[in-house]
Amino acid sequence: MAGILARGPAPLPRRLRARLRTAGAVQRAMLLTGAGLTALFLLAALIGPLLAPYGYARLQDASGLFGAQQPPSGAHPLGTTIAGYDVLSRTLWGARTALEIILAALSLSVVPGTVLGLVSGYLGGRVDRTLVGLADALYAFPPLLLAVVMSIVISGGRSSLAGGLGAAACSVAVAFVPQYFRVVRAEVVRVKAEPYVDAARVIGTSTREIMFRHVLRNSVRTLPLIFTINASEAILTLAGLGFLGFGIEPNSAAEWGYDLNRSVADVTSGLWWTALPPGLAIVLTVLGTTLLGEGLTDLADPRLRRRGAAAVSGTPTDGGTRDG
Amino acid sequence: MADLLRVENLSVTFATDTGPAPAVRGVSLAVAPGEVLALVGESGSGKTVTARSVLGLLPATATTRGRVLLGDGAADPAEDVLTASPARLRALRGTHAAMVFQEPSTALNPVFTVGWQLAEGLRAHGHGGGRAARRALAVDWLGRVGIPDPDTRVDHYPHQLSGGQRQRAVIAMALALGTRLIVADEPTTALDVTVQAEILELLHRCRTDFGTAVLLVTHDMGVVADLADRVAVMRAGEVVEQAPVRPLFAAPGHPYTRELLAAVPVFGRGTGRVRRSGSAAATTSGTTGASAVVGASGPGDGPPVVRAAGLVVDHPGRLRRKGFRAVDGVNFEIGPGEVLGLVGESGSGKTTIGRAVAGLTAVTGGELDVFGVSRTARRRPRDRAGHIGYVFQDPAAAFNPLLTVADSVAEPLAVHRRDLTAAAIRAETEALLESVHLPRAYADRYPHELSGGQRQRAALARALALRPPLIIADEPTSALDVSVQAKVLGLFTELQEERGFAALFISHDLAVVEQVTDRVVVLHRGRVAACGSTADVLGSPQDDYTRRLVAALPVPDPVRQARRPDLTLDVRDDAGTVRHHTAVDALDEGAATT
User: Which of B108, B116, B87 is nearest to B171 (CA)?
Assistant: First the structure.
């Protein structure tokens, strides 16, 4: 039985497809919804600016100013904001800002987190104890407060693209580095005790080569799952900054949190079109990446993966290996 | 009398990612009351799946066909387990059939006392009246299965019991419910050989004293010969042969059974490797052990490859806690080209010694010289590292799963032979694989695409890549099926004779050690119990511990084994009480005459 369940790595697409086929209906729906929403988000970020009728900072066209709080019309499918921006354009452009924050935050946290986790877990000793303590201390930091402080430090209170992005990315990174550190370190400690690492040590392979060739590659399998879940947290932090007024000025980039903040007053006066699009964009993007992450986690873990019953009349597979 | 268990044309198929995988195909079996039926086969033959289906313990991914009828049809009609309702299944489990698992430490819940767990089963099936009565029953049954001092033991937690006692407690749970059939899935595989002998004896008594039938799942022909009345041999989900035990061993009908029996190493048949008369000079230093240094004269004369004197290895304890002394004052030497066996039960320190020689574990005290260089020095020259080849127990874990076999086998060359080009390394790698009889085409496969035996041969190729003068083999065949084990051992001996490397061969299996090694060191709790030439130490053991080890070893021959059951062993359990009286001397004669 164990022999049937245990298998090594197969080419990823084929494996994924096979797993998708055998996953339960709920799991499959979750994963496919997440993948669909995430694909939509990526598409909006990449080609959205081409689709958007106007630039994110445009207030006027050839026929003059757009006008504030215009209801949806042919020229403005989703109306305009209180400041006179086109809502559809800003929502589409906002996807690009969100993607930028995800990439910035992840690259700032994954690399140091992984390297520190690898070194700390493999070498152990005093370095390890210090780093673990430090990571625990970082966990106690409220990321949004840190982001506000960062934003003030980076841009001196002015809300530029670099300032807003940088502040959000740095604070997210500070919050995430310990996560990657812990996950990678735990895996490294496990892999370090595997016989193939002992085998490399007996051979006399250098420590660095063991770390990167044998340990690292076998320790990062769970990281893609954390990526997707952390991506949504990065978006939320940026949106939260924007909502608090520490985000990005409307003429440096489109940002959902800022737009949401500006539309608070509109909601009470019955204007639906300024608040709904950016709000829905945040919700759907976060939902999409989270569902994708959870779905991938379920698929990767054979214990969480549900299977249907096998057909009894099934033809024998070539599963068994014989000894030569 | 009607059969207790009838399995009729059972088929089990598992749903996997790669489609349905049939595990059992059309198996029919029957177990009569008080009968021991052994289900024998190699890994993947479907024997465990068959046994678990008797109790309805298959996972949700399994689809079954056929019938599994439980009950003798006299008192109540036989019921089909496969179609029984969950409530009926719960009622059937325990009273009609009970399971004894391979790993007794995981079969018991660690947060409840043994007595509570026993009483829980009684309560669930409405036995025993009140709480006090159930407790009295629990004490009674713990005593009956041979747990000493059951009055206090009943309040102990599983971790306070030894492995053998835990397995006894599990058996007591089954018996207390008055079960008619015990399904024992590899009940002794996780236990040491002396403890195994006790558990086998207890299972014997289950039948003789309580009339319980046993469905025994095992891969060990020695256990089969010891316990079984009838044997069903399984292969690839089918029963290829079913016969009473003596005829089966005497004249196996099916070619696969013959193959299986031929592959089992028989202890006491070959008396070590008698080639190379030079090794006969090895001194047998008697029973005192710890102070004895084994004679230095190896087959090829010269300075010893490994020399240990008073070797001590501690595993560090927790904060301000004393460490555990795994190896305590061990002396031995390995001459050039000599195969030294290291034998002992689990926890005897044999693997620790191997790791210390390889430099994987730090030496605490004493002297350990490898190639004349001390391992106790703080810093040792790096270039010596490649002069030892190491073969690990579990071939599945010994290779980086992300590298191809060729990459892994070539690693020693890539590290130590910087002068070689990629093409030269590739050629050398293919030659190495050829030398262990692996086809060239396997070089670019990944480890999981090879079978266990093939992986272990690849591990041997990697160990030999730099033509090291010393190989350490740590239980190289204990994770393999017997037929594969025979091939790997044959290959090891062949390569050793061809290349003449010295080897430290670590194993718990006396039959394997006898077959492969020149000299042997018997370890007991970190100390040397005996050492000397293999033929002397294992053929006519002088010290008590070795004698006990040899006596406890089940022989894969029912006729010889039948002469032994009444010979109980003098085995001290952890509490220090002596349960049985010695009859070892009589047993020795039995082993020596055959």
Answer: B108
